[in-house]
C-alpha cells in the first residue's frame, strides 16, 4: 500500500461523529482533526493572557482555552478579545473553561458569554446535590441563548462522587463484583453521556455538543474512548490530562493519541504538558501537530528526515545542518503558509553518510547526503529524486537553505 493510500484508508475508517461548528472551525463529521491548547496565565491579566493566546494561535492552535474562574476573569474576556483582534486574530476562537461558578459568571457577564466561541462544562463540579441539575441547566440555557456549542468534559480528578458511590454500591451487591477501575471508567462514561442527554432535553442539539473523558493513564484513556465511541456519535475531544513534563508527557500523549487516532477516534486534541519553569507554552501545540503529521492525518509544516548518527557520522556537521534547517522552517513557516499553497507538504532529508543518505534524499523533495566520518564536507543535493548539485566547504547550511527557498518559490503557487 502506498503512503497516500495508507493515509486515505486511515481517514476512511474514522469514527463518524456529528460535526460541531465552533466559529469557522468544524470539529467532527470527518473534518480535519483540530488542534487546541490552553493558557496558563491569570485570565484577569488581559495583557498577559492576550499575548499568550496570540502566541498559541500563531503556533497553530485553532482554538485556545482560557480559564474563567472568577468575576475578574469574566470581566477581562471582552478586553482580551479586542486585544487579539488588534494583534491580527480577526475572529478569536476562545473557549471558556468553567468550574464551580460557571452558571453565575455566564449570566452575570453577558459580554463574556457572547464573545466566547465555546463553553467547557465539567459536570463533576458544576454543582452538588440539588444544585447540580439547576446549575447545569443554567449554563446550557446561556449557551442556547448565544448559540454556542459546549464541551462536556468529565475528568477522573473531579468526578461526581454521588455517581461513583451509587455505582460502587450497586457493584458490591453483585455475586462477582467488577474491579474498581472498571466502575470508575463506567462512571466517567455515564457522567458524560447522561450530561449530554440532559443538554438535549433542554433543547440543545448534537451538533452543539462535544464530549471528553480525561484521565492521566494511557491504557485507561484508550479503554474509555473505545467505550465512549462505541456508545455515542458525539464529536470527541482527546486529552491525556496531567500528562506530565518533558519526554514523559510527550511520549504518554503520543502513545495514547496514536492508538485512538489509528482506530479513527478523536476529532480535536490537546497535549496537556507541564511546562518547564519559564518554558514555551506553544510546545503543546507543536506536539499535537507533529503527532497528526507523523500519522499523515494532517500537514502543518515541512517534515525533516534526519538520521540518528552512528560510528560513520562522528562529525557534528550533519547534526548542525539538520538543526539549522529545522529552526529555519519553524522561523519561516508562518510566512510561507500565508504566501504559498501546499508548502506544508514539503519533505526534506538531512542525512549523515553514504549508506542510506542518497536513497533517503531521493525520496524527499529536497535531500542532502553528507559523506560521514573523516571526510571533507562534500554533499550531493537531490531535488525531486534527481541529483541537483554538490555542496562543499564551510557554507553548506546556508547554501542548502537557499536551495530550499528557491524550490518553494518555484514549486508552490502563491496564495
UniProtKB/TrEMBL annotation:
It catalyses: (2E)-4-hydroxy-3-methylbut-2-enyl diphosphate + oxidized [flavodoxin] + H2O + 2 H(+) = 2-C-methyl-D-erythritol 2,4-cyclic diphosphate + reduced [flavodoxin]. Pathway: Isoprenoid biosynthesis; isopentenyl diphosphate biosynthesis via DXP pathway; isopentenyl diphosphate from 1-deoxy-D-xylulose 5-phosphate: step 5/6. GO terms for biological process: isopentenyl diphosphate biosynthetic process, methylerythritol 4-phosphate pathway; terpenoid biosynthetic process. The keyword Chloroplast does not apply. [4Fe-4S] cluster binds at residues 307, 310, 353, 360. InterPro entries: Dihydropteroate_synth-like_sf, IspG_bac, IspG_bac-typ, IspG_C, IspG_TIM, NO2/SO3_Rdtase_4Fe4S_sf. Keywords: 4Fe-4S, Iron, Iron-sulfur, Isoprene biosynthesis, Metal-binding, Oxidoreductase. Pfam families: GcpE (PF04551), GcpE_C (PF26540). Residues 17-289 form the IspG TIM-barrel domain. This is 4-hydroxy-3-methylbut-2-en-1-yl diphosphate synthase (flavodoxin). The gene is ispG.
Amino acid at each position: 500500500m502506498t503512503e497516500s493510500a495508507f493515509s486515505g484508508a486511515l481517514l476512511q475508517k474514522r469514527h463518524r461523529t456529528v460535526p460541531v461548528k465552533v466559529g469557522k472551525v468544524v470539529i467532527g463529521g470527518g473534518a480535519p482533526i483540530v488542534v487546541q491548547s490552553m493558557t496558563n496565565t491569570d485570565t484577569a491579566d488581559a495583557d498577559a493572557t492576550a499575548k499568550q493566546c496570540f502566541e498559541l494561535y500563531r503556533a497553530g492552535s485553532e482554538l485556545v482555552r482560557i480559564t474563567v474562574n472568577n468575576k475578574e476573569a469574566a470581566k477581562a474576556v471582552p478586553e482580551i478579545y479586542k486585544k487579539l483582534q488588534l494583534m491580527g486574530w480577526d475572529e478569536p476562537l476562545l473557549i471558556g473553561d468553567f468550574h464551580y461558578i460557571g452558571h453565575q459568571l455566564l449570566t452575570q457577564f453577558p459580554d463574556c458569554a457572547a464573545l466566547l466561541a465555546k463553553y467547557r462544562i465539567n459536570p463533576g463540579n458544576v454543582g452538588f446535590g440539588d444544585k447540580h441539575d439547576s446549575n447545569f441547566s443554567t449554563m446550557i440555557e446561556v449557551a442556547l441563548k448565544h448559540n454556542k456549542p459546549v464541551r462536556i468534559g468529565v475528568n477522573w480528578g473531579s468526578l461526581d462522587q454521588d455517581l461513583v458511590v451509587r455505582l460502587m454500591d450497586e457493584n458490591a451487591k453483585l455475586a462477582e463484583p467488577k474491579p474498581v477501575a472498571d466502575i470508575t471508567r463506567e462512571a466517567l462514561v455515564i457522567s458524560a453521556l447522561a450530561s449530554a442527554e440532559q443538554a438535549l432535553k433542554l433543547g440543545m442539539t448534537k451538533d452543539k455538543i462535544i464530549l471528553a473523558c480525561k484521565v492521566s493513564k494511557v491504557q485507561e484513556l484508550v479503554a474509555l474512548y473505545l467505550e465512549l465511541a462505541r456508545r455515542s456519535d458525539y464529536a470527541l475531544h482527546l486529552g491525556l490530562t496531567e500528562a506530565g513534563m518533558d519526554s514523559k508527557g510527550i511520549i504518554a500523549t503520543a502513545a495514547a493519541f496514536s492508538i485512538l487516532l489509528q482506530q479513527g477516534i478523536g476529532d480535536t486534541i490537546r497535549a496537556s504538558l507541564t511546562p518547564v519553569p519559564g518554558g514555551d507554552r506553544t510546545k503543546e501545540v507543536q506536539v499535537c501537530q507533529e503527532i497528526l503529521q507523523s500519522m499523515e492525518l494532517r500537514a502543518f509544516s515541512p517534515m525533516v528526515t534526519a538520521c540518528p548518527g552512528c560510528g560513520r557520522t562522528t562529525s557534528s556537521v550533519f547534526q548542525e545542518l539538520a538543526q539549522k534547517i529545522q529552526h529555519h522552517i519553524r522561523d519561516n513557516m508562518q510566512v510561507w503558509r500565508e504566501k504559498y499553497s501546499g508548502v506544508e507538504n514539503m519533505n526534506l532529508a538531512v542525512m549523515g553518510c553514504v549508506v542510506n543518505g542518497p536513497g533517503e534524499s531521493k525520496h524527499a523533495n529536497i535531500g542532502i547526503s553528507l559523506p560521514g566520518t573523516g571526510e571533507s564536507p562534500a554533499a550531493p543535493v537531490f531535488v525531486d529524486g534527481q541529483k541537483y548539485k554538490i555542496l562543499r566547504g564551510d557554507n553548506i547550511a546556508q547554501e542548502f537553505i537557499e536551495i530550499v527557498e528557491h524550490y518553494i518559490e518555484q514549486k508552490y503557487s502563491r496564495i
